[in-house]
Write a structure and sequence with these properties.
about 750 residues; mainly beta; Maltoporin, Chain A; 5-stranded mixed sheet; 8 helices; about 10% helix
Length: about 750
Amino acid sequence: MKFMDMKYRHVLLATTGVVSIILACPGAARAQGAGDAAGARAATSAAPAGEIVVTAQRRSEKLQDVPIAITAISAEMQTRAGITSFRDIQLLVPGAQFGDFVAIEQNVIRGIGTTTSAPPGLEPPVAVYYDGVYIARGIGSQESMSLYDPGTVQVLRGPQGVLYGRNATGGAIIVSSADPEDQFKGRIAGEYGNFDHVQLEGMINAPLSDELSLRVAGRYTDEDGYVKNRAVPGDRYYGGYKFGVRGKLKWSPSDSFTAVLGVEHSVLRQKLGSLAAFNIDTCMLCGTAGYPADYGFYDTYQNVIPRFRLNYTQVSLNITADLGGATLTSVTGYRKDTFSGDTDSDGTPSDVFMFRTPAEGGKSYVQDLTLSGKVGSNIDYLVGMSGLYDKGYYVAQLAGSLWDAVAAPFGAYPTFRDDVTTKSLSVFAEASYSFGDLKATVGGRYNWDRRELDVNINPAAVAAFGGPPMSDSANVSFRSFTPRFVLAWDNGPTNIYYSYTRGFKAGGYNLPTPTVVDPVKPSKIFSHEIGIKQRVEDWGHVNLAVFYQKSSDLQVQQIDLLAGGSRTENAASSEAYGVELDGQISPAEGLSLGAMVAYLHSEYLKYPAASLSCYTPAAGLFSCPLNVKGSPTQRSPRWSLGGNISYNFPLGVAGWVGNLAGLARYTSAYDFYPAAGGPLGMDRQAGYTLVNISGYVSPDESRSLRVGFYVNNLLDRKYVSFRGTNAPFLQYQQPGRPRTYGVRVSKTF
């Protein structure tokens, strides 16, 4: 087995080496032609003011030319709108919900996504790419991508099964940091706000020669938490510190060859594990724990939780070469992450049940290759392959008085370690034929996946779970073919398209598990979409998308802490349809306006035995299977709408200028679990509105020095970023951030 693992990794590394040698040879690096690299440069120069060049189809194209529902946010817009975290992105994306729970990403697009943990070996259905590298594990990924020194963010809505492969049934999020440039520049910035929020960041970009450029950036953040633990005075949650540092080296020996090597390391130390009870009547131990009479929305009352610890390191190598009529692109990635933390699963100061994660994480190796170009004047083509080798692990321990009797004979609590190896290979191709303003595109991807599970448990776990073997193993393989067809009419200002796409979400094993269990089945989806993309002269754009999609064997996460945290099960089927409208215009110099609105109807067509929770005063909370046909899928608000504004203006004082910016989004009610968690119907968030504002002043038009302010959640709305029912213990929630405010200072040179 180890030999096969080494062989698989060596195949990926050897492919990288061969490609690098070919691309770096003088003939290839200096080949001249009208390939996609030159086309990308032409696209950039020809794009209307403010239009973004995107890579949604694995080639550089103008945003309005791409027949995909996509939201692209430039670095300038992120700075202007005060977007500094991954979660802020949802304020600008119709049909999307980006949340988190104890450092676990919960990205949902058009009703497809994760609502609790996607453990090693069961990746999230919204694929995330960071500097071209696919992120196989969702834990901590939002925190690690803090958007310092940003490039662009692209959110592709709907299944992306051909170009971004397996596990993109909901969509794809492509995050890019800024690349090195050929001129010296730098930036330093600082923030101070309530909850003793301190943030420092810096960037320096330096050309080392005519061919080499270096860019180094970093950010440090430290703050107190906003949730008080009333059981321990002074103890707070959702605070702590994190820092990240990134270095990029760009080599451009000619106009037709570019290589960018990136290395990044990030550290997170925060208290995130709050299970704050929100319904004392259904809480099994709250009555005996003596909850305070004035227990509030931003309070919890439980054991002291050690800090959650997250470290990750990523290395990426992106190579692009114009071969003369074609462009070859290579992305090589390595990512290592480690995570540890504890959860007080009974939610009270009583030491009854502590779910501990001494270690979780793994290593990933990624290799993508694409070749794109033209045949004659009418045919565009793209072919490629993708390889992934991921070695993930999860160590879990069940502690507290609930497990004392089991642990006593062995001197240790039940502990189990699961290792999952994922091997994935795929090939894909797409071709477009143009006739006048019409273009027809046909493509497909064939994918092969293999999961290998190894389970190792201690003697206490053998006793606790009825005598499973101390070690066991299993494996499962999946194959899939996902086609795509697009017909588009594009006359320049107007682009009208129809697309049919299929997507595939790989199956795998629920983790953590003390014994080998049956694998979760893959889920499949198909989508029809009609879209209109309209340029508004030189002002901006307005886009409309109408879609229908249907899933089978949809993978749904459920809370089951007694069985080791969360559990994924297959729903029978779901369907969704909706309309999304968004636009961004600049009607006057210095003024930018944007708006978006989305209607989404997403529900389960069949789901006869969802694992939810019931309650009676005599029995308390208990697990019960329910038929939730017709229930909305998780995090699927019927309506979401929002707007953004940024205005630059002169102050009339010795050349001083200013800026005011605002973001607002209304989200209607949505469920965190099918049927809002069960008959109690309380795992739900009511409709709410978030408003963020920011602004700055600068002594001159260069705006190199900025002194400003920010206020997030201006209206101080109380909302929850997660809510769940954990039978038999309690119903709990993670309060969203209250109003936060502070000052900012930055200097660019």
